[in-house]
Amino acid sequence: xxxxxxxxxxxxxxxxxxxxxxxxxxxxxxxxxxxxxxxxxxxxxxxxxxxxxxxxxxxxxxxxxxxxxxxxxxxxxxxxxxxxxxxxxxxxxxxxxxxxxxxxxxxxxxxxxxxxxxxxxxxxxxxxxxxxxxxxxxxxxxxxxxxxxxxxxxxxxxxxxxxxxxxxxxxxxxxxxxxxxxxxxxxxxxxxxxxxxxxxxxxxxxxxxxxxxxxxxxxxxxxxxxxxxxxxxxxxxxxxxxxxxxxxxxxxxxxxxxxxxxxxxxxxxxxxxxxxxxxxxxxxxxxxxxxxxxxxxxxxxxxxxxxxxxxxxxxxxxxxxxxxxxxxxxxxxxxxxxxxxxxxxxxxxxxxxxxxxxxxxxxxxxxxxxxxxxxxxxxx
Length: 380
Ligand code: ZN
Fold this sequence. Notes:
This protein is an alpha/beta fold. The protein contains 8 helices and 14 strands. It has 2 domains: about 5-125, Immunoglobulin-like (Sandwich); about 145-375, Aminopeptidase, CATH 3.40.630.
């Protein structure tokens, strides 16, 4: 995709993409908030950085990016319910690029609700067809080594926060996770996996599933978010664990931002599962939470001497990505991209090395008793 334009007004809006090949889009809708989703085969987006930040007419803004391997996606936030009046593909003529044109007209809530229903039915049909290919992760677990899942936040169409100087959260958290994995792999004591290894979007629920399917012993989600209020004050690393009630306002605000990831990428939200009142599951959940808290405290102790921390560096809130009932999970905000000083640190090699070493030390501390037991009884 080499260009995009929007023309029209609140009654009728035309969205045009310049393309270098013919593609067959699948257009669907999601509500709450009103969104239009255009799924495409993987395309390269070589458009100016500001593209999509402002819309026109029925489109308030839009974003684009890799949604999954081989699949690109465009998500538009809408100002009003719409109907797709027309979709056409214009082949390239002379020096004009090929174009995909989508005409939207304003519609009613009732009609838009029907559009959402049809989209859902089409999606379920498609899922059925591809279900056989779905790659469930088996757990080829090396029985001795603790398995650690590193979870670089965001990715693909969900860029996460943008720094004062333009740093993208999705890129720096992936770089950092790669560095940490390299260090842990070098120790040879752990089996380290990643929820994503490239610039691909992964839904929050899928991240939790990966930890569960791999029977991970520890799950570390890595972020560097931005806050709207207190940009000057919110800086330094923070370690979060799951709680029903946020420990403070900042924690609550951050969990809300994080939990928006699926909405940004246009993933249909599952109904919140009704809490199962299963005594064993409850016990497992409680045990997992205490391991999560223990690791968070170990991590804070280690980070204290290495990098700058926020005041009260162990906080908690309702992060969806930390909800595995059987995997101790923490979320680390490396720093805040909304703070210019933090942003400079986050892109500095020296700081990253120090941060990754300190996290490595905390991980050793967490698994030391288990590794010592294994050494004492090597035959088991
Ligand atoms: Zn984030």
